[in-house]
Amino acid sequence: MLAAARQAVLVTTVPLPYQPLRQALDERTNVEARMCFYLSGLFTAAEEIQHHLDAGVPVVVESYFARCLTTHRALGAQLGITLPSWLPTPATYHLVCDDDERQRRLAGRNKPVSRWDSLIETATDRVTDAYASFPMHRVDTTGRSPDEVLRVIMDTDTQGAHPHADSEPVGAHPHVLPAVPRHVAGTCRP
Q: Source organism's superkingdom (predicted)?
């Protein structure tokens, strides 16, 4: 919906050629291998994103480096990652809702629950903590329809100046996911 509203290209962050391997890898238990797979898909998608941006075409992605890094760290990955400076920097929206609504939405999904989906439900506090290092626009979706959420996002100035944007400084909320840092804590700069 957001891509259509912004007249943008929707880029999947697990590119089509990766999909068969994704299922096989998700059946495994090695969190570092899974993280590397998703990072590889994201770097491939980032090249496609940059190509579109260079051509003046807006892009929407459903997931980017922040989600990959926070999720896998919460699941125990210990790889140190320094993201390259050439990566496109997105305006990022963290869609949140109250826990009762979140559980209801999860139960209503028409998607098989993987081992990783179950594991991440045991680490939601660690995910929330890991998101704190990434700035983003927080959008509370509790009680809102997809159309209403879209209107909130479309009304949000991507620089954070919109009156409905969260006005607290980045990192003030432990559940707010900020934009991708160029240097991840615990790693050395080259």
A: Bacteria
Burial of 44 (0-12, 13-18, 19+ CB in 10 A): middle
C-alpha–C-alpha distance, residues 150 and 133, integer Å: 25
Q: Which amino acid is at 90?
A: P
Does the CA dihedral 21-23-27-29 come out positive or negative?
positive
Element (H, E) at 145: none
Whether the pTM exceeds 0.85: the reply is no
Alpha helices in the chain (DSSP H): 2-5, 19-26, 31-54, 65-74, 99-107, 115-121, 124-131, 146-155
For residues 112 and 158, the answer to whether their CB atoms sit within 8 Å is no
Alpha-helical (H) ranges within 141-185 are 146-155
Q: Which of 91, 92, 39 is nearest to 65 (CA)?
A: 39
Specify whether the CB–CB gap between 131 and 124 falls below 8 A.
no
Distance separating alpha carbons of residues 175 and 96, to the nearest angstrom: 9
Residues in Cβ contact with 80 at an 8 Å cutoff, skipping those fewer than 6 apart = 184, 186, 187, 188
| Paired tokens of 151 | 């209107």
Phi, psi at 96, each rounded to 5°: -125, 160
First-to-last C-alpha distance (Å) of the chain: 40
